[in-house]
Task: inverse folding
């Protein structure tokens, strides 16, 4: 069992599966050796999409939701439709290589490919996760930062790619550095017109009067953010537990006035928010622990 | 003389030059072989900066301006200060490898490096340019597309990285696809509050009553766009030719009412705009040709 694992997806697009052609496939590769050309548009233009998938006890979580979102992101970027069975097999192959006793995180990357070519590239990389147990109970301090876009930008300017999980994440990483400069751990983006959006790599959930709320996406509230796969699972849990999961357009004041709030994501699961712009925010240890038990116990 | 050339910059940051350490350097590599790891943040997060530099008759153009802008972009992204002498030497080494009888374009890429590490990576890739002579006289049709941000976003939300030439260019490429869908060749971005910004990979210049105008940047008009290296050179030419080069805050109506307009960039030089959103725009063949002669003849 190696520490990290890499599979190169040699046939990442659905249309690679032309009749008579060899089956599109994948192969193991050494993650510590160079595997990409400098002219791959992933590296030169951030031109591709990705998914991060958590693996616990050898189970990749929310795999179907991740595959569907990969396809959705690819569609927004006009990438060839990904061949999801190949991606699924590649993901499972990486899982096989990882130590099943450790939480791990996979990253599936689907790039437009070599500049000037017409063949996309793909890979799945897996590595053990850091130990998130402390942050899952102690929580994080967040700052609210302007995302610059109106909440409904996905409808009016789809070329800005809101709602797609692209490789162009320099802004997300710069926002995290800004949060650190302000003494916080993480960020929640706010739209130019004043609505809560999402974290840099997470969805925002909050509890108000016994109801679990989240900003929703283009299909529900019209807000141009990523559909959270983990948020989706937490909403299923909330439904079963009569917490009336609901998508809303929320302002910073709504968030600040909430009874508890979380950032949820594939790798860290639910992390409670313990301060917002330096002001303490209430924690709900019981619900946090219930959500995280549920998320860790998923078998699909 | 090979068709393309690649130099890996093994010591891209200034602080690699620690006393007693081996001099930071670079080495030639095969651009057709994999040279990057999948965990390089250039490929997984678009987390780095770049410059495109044109080479004519063996001269890389505006080299000092490009190196300075690389350093400026790096600073906006909190990357370690690049060691510009090493980058300059690496660029000149790539130029040596290219066919001097053909126009070429170099791309210098400075990435945050391997995830979890603290060492940035860098490379310079060079390839012959397509023949731009037709487009430099016939021009391009452009569409105006919303960039989603207010013009002054660089001042209020620097974490959005306006004014840095980052590897996160998925939006720029999506905007070009949208332009193609609308039957145009290129795009000019407009701020959410209605000001002309820049092209997807170019600056916008236009002539009004004998004056050559451009939107300017954070330092002049407060507009959060990239400082154009080629635009800077054209402004020097305009100064010598009494065309009163001036930075302005311009609206789409100002652009539509101009006597002539251009997209200028390192590789294509000055390309006249022959239509805006499908409406014909006047060309000025004399000025276009004068600008392009000047740009092609630069020896620094």
Result:
């Amino acid at each position: 069992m190696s520490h990290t694992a890499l599979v190169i997806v040699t046939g990442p697009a659905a249309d690679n599966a032309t009749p008579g052609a060899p089956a599109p496939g994948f192969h193991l590769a050494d993650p510590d050796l160079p595997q990409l050309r400098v002219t791959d548009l992933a590296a030169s233009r951030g031109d591709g999409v990705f998914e991060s998938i958590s693996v616990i006890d050898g189970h990749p979580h929310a795999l179907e939701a991740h595959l569907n979102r990969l396809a959705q992101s690819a569609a927004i970027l006009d990438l060839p439709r990904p061949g999801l069975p190949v991606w699924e097999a590649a993901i499972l192959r990486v899982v096989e290589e990882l130590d099943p006793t450790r939480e791990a995180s996979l990253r599936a990357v689907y790039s437009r490919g070599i500049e000037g070519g017409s063949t996309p590239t793909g890979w799945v990389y897996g590595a053990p996760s850091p130990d998130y147990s402390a942050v899952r109970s102690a929580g994080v301090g967040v700052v609210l930062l302007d995302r610059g876009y109106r909440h409904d930008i996905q409808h009016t300017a789809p070329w800005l790619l809101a709602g797609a999980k692209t490789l162009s994440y320099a802004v997300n990483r710069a926002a995290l550095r800004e949060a650190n400069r302000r003494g916080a751990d993480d960020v929640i983006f706010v739209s130019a017109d004043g609505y809560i959006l999402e974290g840099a790599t997470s969805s925002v959930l909050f509890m108000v009067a016994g109801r679990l709320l989240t900003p929703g996406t283009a299909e529900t509230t019209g807000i141009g953010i990523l559909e959270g796969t983990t948020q989706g699972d937490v909403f299923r849990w909330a439904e079963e537990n009569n917490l009336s999961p609901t998508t809303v357009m929320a302002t910073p004041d709504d968030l600040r006035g909430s009874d508890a709030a979380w950032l949820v994501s594939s790798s860290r699961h639910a992390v409670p928010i313990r301060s917002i712009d330096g002001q303490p925010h209430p924690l709900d240890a019981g619900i946090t622990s219930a959500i995280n038990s549920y998320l860790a116990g998923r078998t699909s």
Summary: Chain B has nine helices and 15 strands.
